[in-house]
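Predict the assembly for these two chains.
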Amino acid sequence: MYKRKIYLEDKPRFEARDEILAAFEVTPEKELIPTVDALGRVTAEPIFAPFSTPHYHASAMDGVAVVAESTYTAHEQNPLHLKLGVQFVHVDTGNAIPSPFNAVIMIEHVQVLDDDTIEIIEPATPWQHIRPIGEDIVQEEMLFPQGHVLRPADLGVLIASGLLSVAVVKKPVVAVIPTGNELVEPGQEMAPGKIVEFNGTVFANFIKEWGGEPRLHRIVKDEPEKIKEALLEASETSDFIVINAGSSAGRKDYTVHIIQELGTVYTHGVAARPGKPVILGKINGTVVIGVPGYPVSAYLALEWFARPLVCKYLGVPEPERQKVTVKLGRRIVSSMGAEDFVRMNIGFVNGQFVANPLTRAAGVTMSYVRADGLLVVPPDVIGYEQGELAEVELLRPLEEIRNAIMFTGSHDLTIDLLSSALKQVRTEMKIVSSHVGSMAGIMAIRKGEAHVAGIHLLDPETKQYNISYVRRLLAGQEVVLYPFLKRKQGWILPAGNPLEIRDVRDLVEKGANFVNRQKGAGTRILFDMLLEEAGLEPEGIAGYDREMFSHLAVAAEVKSDACGAGLGIYPAAKAMGLEFVPVSDEEYDLVMTRSFYESEQFKLLAEIIHSPAFKAQVEKIGGYQVVENAEPKRLAEEVK
Amino acid sequence: MYKRKIYLEDKPRFEARDEILAAFEVTPEKELIPTVDALGRVTAEPIFAPFSTPHYHASAMDGVAVVAESTYTAHEQNPLHLKLGVQFVHVDTGNAIPSPFNAVIMIEHVQVLDDDTIEIIEPATPWQHIRPIGEDIVQEEMLFPQGHVLRPADLGVLIASGLLSVAVVKKPVVAVIPTGNELVEPGQEMAPGKIVEFNGTVFANFIKEWGGEPRLHRIVKDEPEKIKEALLEASETSDFIVINAGSSAGRKDYTVHIIQELGTVYTHGVAARPGKPVILGKINGTVVIGVPGYPVSAYLALEWFARPLVCKYLGVPEPERQKVTVKLGRRIVSSMGAEDFVRMNIGFVNGQFVANPLTRAAGVTMSYVRADGLLVVPPDVIGYEQGELAEVELLRPLEEIRNAIMFTGSHDLTIDLLSSALKQVRTEMKIVSSHVGSMAGIMAIRKGEAHVAGIHLLDPETKQYNISYVRRLLAGQEVVLYPFLKRKQGWILPAGNPLEIRDVRDLVEKGANFVNRQKGAGTRILFDMLLEEAGLEPEGIAGYDREMFSHLAVAAEVKSDACGAGLGIYPAAKAMGLEFVPVSDEEYDLVMTRSFYESEQFKLLAEIIHSPAFKAQVEKIGGYQVVENAEPKRLAEEVK
């Protein structure tokens, strides 16, 4: 029906933003709301005080009000006696000072002689201990300009000034329209090829957070007439529209053609990744933002273009993220001519912020959720070398990052439990873990990119775990190898073990599709050793090149294939209801610098590890045993 | 009834906090809520993924699914023909890859020969362009630990995982009880001595912001039985209680005695100012926080003790404020043995953050509202010298402070209008003004503490305004004097001018109570000149020593006294419905460094000043005329 347009533009992001901002010509509406409900709302006009606060001369102390000039002769040698009602009156804090009195003497400095008479021995100065009219707020003073976001104390000022309702900017209504034949509403059955619609909820909540009022539409099928109908309806009832997916240049990407037909397309494609296939246009006088379908692209594009519109409507500046300078743990490559938004994990190790990129796949929502920050690589930069410094925008509070323990190396399911237990005793602490494999874990400790790494590396020579690798790879460094777990490694197989896999030879003989781990993972090294011992070549193993990054990922793959087979730990098989055939008992230990070993953070961690509650929790999973009473090996002394 | 206890403790704040945290033994409740409503809520338990996402091998591209191994021989010189249904199937992005296919070739790389046949000239590698099962989320993976505050994208992850409801920590219920005979509910009439109850609303909104659920009680009279009843009722229905005022050691400060009677008092008084008279205790198993009555004391005490309890209940760390190092524009004196919380204005001038203290009166709510940050002076520090560097906790986003124009010097009502107009064109900009008087304004420019100062200083010799002062006080500096306004100064008098004041002699002869301005204010200098010309002495003027800091404050004072009289500008008199007798037409000009004069910020300001809209607005007030076509005086050249 519509001609296919293959090429998207590469318009600079800010140019595209300025155009759409200029095109967004909606006049903000005001509404009068009760002040008590106005937290976080934006003032629609300057607010002036209708009267002064205090609105009378008020005593600032408990005491007596006097005429200052009549006390000037008071002295220790010349006590003055004052009469109630004539020369003084009693006042408490907050009481009005009646005329002609003009000073307050604290009750502590007054000698009460009888019900009617007091004695003072010090003069009062005019206006002492009196809060004059308008001390806090002077009538006609501007309390807040327009565009002010009301905070708790601001509401107090309004109420104190008798302003029980306040004119605020109405929240802009933003229509959110999800489209796609593959989408099903949350709660509906998910057949293969079907995806639950969740971007809409995310968009709605971002818009809410920015101060807008989202209206989430039901799912619209990929049919031009239905999309057109939804857009036209939304253009009548919202301040602007966000339409999700169909924004690219594929077979069923109708959106750009429809907007062109109904109005104007300003931009189709921006020079930024991920998030490039954006459409910015206008129909029926209403701005439309077409956002790509992959979640990470979508959230970035929403922030680039929807947030400025919400802020423009409200008359508030766009919030800026805190930034921090980090050392890059890995090389980062970017393309010329486009901005790159790289999701980063950030840790505070050895007094320095260290950051590593997460996956750059736009479909991996968890990479956005797990990210501590965004590295925005400008269009004219092709990347950064490992070890270079760069500025990163934070997605979490700096303190949260500073307090996180960076765990790396081999993946183990108990690390999440450890993190939970830690957070329970100390809410400000947590473990941030990345799965890079045992070998990469050791290297991360060496480069100061993580606090602690989990490793399980069998030495084929000595048949010992870990120690020889640490000695070799961390030679001369002050490190500690801390015994943590014994765990069962074995074959992870479809339920019932249909191919009857018992050992590595069976993989070849029975034609299993093997699911491997990445290079440097302890399990991969174990598998290679098994191959070698059996005299087999990697080339003979179907699936040898297919690498997964965790035990769970291996198990998930095995579960989807009746001929699948993997090597991994028992709890991963158990969690997915798969068969497990034990191969070996391995030692999963923790390696860390000596300074981290001696830190308060690790002491707390060690306490949790050896707590009965944690041990019980771990051993309940099965296939685990927490190592007790083993001596941590301080390796620097031996090596030096 | 109760014995008066005069002395409050001076317990270190953190000690008091740790005690009350330990005493707060409430077990947090969980509640299951719809995920779509869970923004900002805190997870009550770790959340694991019930299945993988994608839950099937999904195509990452529009194209054809093939068996990779069957394409290995494809080459430009050896095109392969594949048959639909047997050797390939069509797939769109997101479609499931049917068995036995294991790779996707992009549609752009496929030559369609007929409905059933395609040609390819390149081999596919296994799993290319396929999003494998669990690429985003692997079944049984921990998505979030307990104590995680849910953000928009987190809700997407939950919904994608089929988790349409989520167990969150219930919001802790916090009872807020305002007490005091002087209090009236908002909207009621305010006689002298009566104060509208607004702290309760502020507390409720702070608690809401921190994640609690406030229950605001009606006002309770200062009667022990009524307070007791309110406390006991709240102890049954809330997780903890905040009671406002009565926390000090005065005549009617019953709270501490009541808590002692009903339970335990842990703390009465902390070593921190303002906010010292705090009570921390427990009745009926429920923690009670007695908060002082003055607003600023109250808000600080609430943050010190109520926020940690809310965060403990929720299992989240207390948020920390961003900090910034500032240069102190004035000397700050503090007392030994107690922390001092000094509200500060912060400006970004000449590439440096410069901060000045606001009033330290605990009753001045606006000082908290206007503050950009808090300087926390530790108990063992007696203060800081002017020019010293200190770290300040920010009460506003750093960017907002960085973008503010620091206006100082003489007070004029048009500055607020200018700020409003500026914010309308550029939402991220605003003017922050402090009223220090013309002379102090010039000194602030000299010391680099402000961007621009408003001045109106008449030289008695030359009868010229401003220029001679700037030449003398800013000698050798590159400054610009920018003509801004002509405005009317005159006597501000009660309506109808009952004392018939016409000139300065009348003040003395008719026994007026004069309201003066602070030293260094242009109006004060004018008044002193009038005195001198009339041959009068300051001692002869009743009220000469009573200093106000703005025209509006003078007018407010005059309004409250039938014998009052002040000197000030016409709009201040007009705003309060007072009489105005003109004395002189004065020149209110702006002084700034040359670099600020040449900045984008000032160019924008100048544009607004000379816009017809702004001029119309200013002249509508009356007594003003915006100066047109006058040449700004660049003073460095003349002086050098």
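The mean pLDDT of chain B is 92. The longest strand of chain B covers residues 479-493.
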